[in-house]
Specification:
307 residues, 2 domains, 72% helix
Length: 307
Amino acid sequence: MIGSYAFAPFGLSITPILVGAGFLIIILLFRWERHLEQAGKDGLFKPSIMQIDGMRAGLSVRAIQVGVSAAFLYIFPLMLQLSFSYTAIEAGFAMMPFSIGLLLFAIIGSKLSARFTAKRIIQVGFLMTLIGLIGVGNRIVPDINPAELLMGSFLGAGLGLIASQILNLILSSVSMKNISETSGLIGTFEQLGAAVGIALAGVIMLTVLSTSLENQISVHPSLPTEINAALITAVEDGVQLASNEQLEASLAALSISAEMETALFEIYHIARTDAFRAGIALLIYSTLLGSIFALGLPNRKLLNKKT
C-alpha cells in the first residue's frame, strides 16, 4: 500500500518484481564495472577478479556459510523462546554449545591447515554442518525436550571449520594490489548471504505455518464445519509465529468452547513445529549447495609444514 493506493502491477505482489529488479541492477552493475575496467578507469571493483581460479566458488561458499549461520541464529532462538518459553537470556545460554563448537573448531581448523588442504577441511566442515542440521531437524517434534537439540554444537563445529579456511583461501588467491577490492567483495557477499538466509527462512516458515494450519483446520474432527471457512480465511489474511502464552491469550479472547480451544492449540502447536522443521530443511539444502560450490575451490594448503 502507498497511502490508500494498492500497488499491484498486473495483479501480482510487488515482491517478485522488486526481486527481479534487484537482479537486473546487479547485472547492470557488473557490466558497467567491466566497461570501466576495460577503459582503464577506476570503479567500485574489478570484475576480472571474479575470473581468478576458485574466486566465484570461494565467494559463494562464504555467502552460504554466513547465510546458514545467520538463519540458524534466527531460527533456533526463536524456537526456544516460542516453543519452550525461554527468555532471551535463557536462549542465549542454550546457544552456547553452538558458539563454543564454532569457536573451538575455528581454532582447530587453523591448526589443521599445515596438514590438509583448505578445500578438504571446508568439505569436512560442510559434512559436519549437514550432520548437525539433520540431527536437529529430526528432533524437532511437538513433544521435543530442549536437551535433545544439542546437535547444534556439531553444526557449530562444522561452520567453524569452514570459517577457519575460506577467508584465507580467497585472499591468498589474489595479488597484494587486489586485496582491498577482494575484501570488499567478501563483505558484500557476506551481507548478501546473511540477508537472503534470514529472509528465506522467515518466508518459508510463515508459508509452511499457514499451509499446515489450513490443512489441519479443514480436516480436524473437533472443529464444526461451519467455522472452518472462517478460520481458514483468518489464516490466509495473516498468521504469525507466536508463543504458547500469546496463543492462549488470543484463544481466550475468542470466547469459544474449551474443546475448540484445545483443538486449535494443538493444531497451532503442530503447525509451528512444521514451520521450524521447514526452516531447518532450508538450511540443509543450502549446506548441500555449499558443498557443491566447494568442489570448485582450489585444492592447496594454506600453510606449509615446518621442516
